[in-house]
Amino acid sequence: MPALWKLLAKSEADASRIFAVFRQETKNDAHVHVGDVHAADPEMALVLAKEQFTRRDPCVNLWVVPYTAIGATAYDDAVIFEPATDKSYRFGGSYREQQRVMKPRHREPR
Question: Which domains does the chain have, with CATH numbers?
Answer without folding.
Answer: 4-69 (3.10.20.520)
